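Revision sheet: structure tokens.
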Amino acid sequence: MGVLENKVAIVTGGASGIGKAIVEIFLEEGAKVVIADINEELGLAMLEENSEGNLVFIKADSASTEDSEKIVSAAVENFGALHIAVNNAGIGGPSTDVGNYPLDLWNKVIDINLNGVFYGMHFQLPEMEKVGGSIINMASILGEVGFANSSAYAAAKHGVVGLTKSTAWEYGTRDVRINAIGPGFIKTPMIDNEINDETQQYLASQHALQRLGSPREVAELALWLASEKSSFATGGYYPIDGGYLAK
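Predicted:
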């Protein structure tokens, strides 16, 4: 029996990268999962690969309050409850200094990476209080330190950490745990699409392990936080960064 047997989970941004790895490991451990992602093609492809009836895909934008509510409704309507939520959906944004940062793109990064986490929890928590559970918010190493030319991303991820800690105190006596994960640079489609090979090599050198991480390595941490093995963990920020923050 898996450690998530009979549990129902939501994973936003679950059709690729870290989110997909989390969906896969949750399914392996017995969970029923609702994937929410803006990329319908990738989401439906995951659905087609699954014949167990324990997976649902919802096309959704995490920056939409209506979609955030729809995702929770899908979990309850299809599987009867909500025990776990991974608020993972995010974008990188442009690489430029604050004085030249496009205002519309600043708003887009904040909407998806920070407001989307708040919207998710706003609708997840009332359902989760009924059965108890765990929320995992995807922050970043940039939830703790800065990074030149990534002001919106770093600001949003710092906000996710603060939001996580505050919410953990609000729900500490309501049988819901809330934690944040802080990945280092992970080899995902977003990294491959936005960062050239030379820059990826440089980024790898900034980690003590001298490499980028894998989505599965992050998923293993998410699994621990989702399970009862982490029953005394709430309000935490957990870097999984190959030693990046040890400098």
